[in-house]
Amino acid sequence: MISETYSLLVNGNSYQVVDGHPSESLLWVLRERLELSGSKNACEEGECGSCTVLVDGEIVCSCLVLAASAVGREITTIEGLGSEDEISDVQKAFVDAGAVQCGFCTPGLLVAIDQLLNTDPDPDDLTVREAISGNLCRCTGYGRILEAVRIASKNRKAQNQEEQGK
Q1: Could you tell me the pTM of the whole model?
Q2: E strand map for the chain
């Protein structure tokens, strides 16, 4: 059996993957080898979005990416959105809007929405729907998710105005 040792940069931290197999998906390595279990494993076909992460700032389905191909690239998972002490603004907005139901789709949605708000701080509903079109939620009907995006967007705008006023 072929095995490799390589490093991955995940959420700003370097992780050694020892005895990795070239065919292992990034999702599998994140969950099983690095014990970062926030990204979920559902369809393994890139259809549901539950495994959404960022690789060099681009949204990807980690189930479709070979882990070894992410060497030298910056990976951001759901665990990288907040800190140990505080959840992110998007996570808080999801709680405030009641957008978390069973929670299975939530990590992928949060990563996608955080990235959207980083690039478009005031998206309209159509833009949000397009940005999350690769993330399936079977519980919420998306209404509460859209409300969470509105809350997070409003809060970010207020924070930016406050910072500019200082």
Answers
A1: 0.93
A2: 4-10, 13-20, 52-55, 58-61, 74-76
SS3 category, 77: coil
Beta partners for 74? 9
In the chain, the domains with their CATH numbers are 4-80 (3.10.20.30), 89-161 (1.10.150.120)
Q: Which residues of the chain have pLDDT under 50?
A: none
Burial of 147 (0-12, 13-18, 19+ CB in 10 A): middle
Two structure tokens written together for 12: 């700003």
Give the C-alpha separation, 81 to 110, whole Å: 8
4-10 sheet: strands from edge to edge:
13-20, 4-10, 74-76, 52-55, 58-61
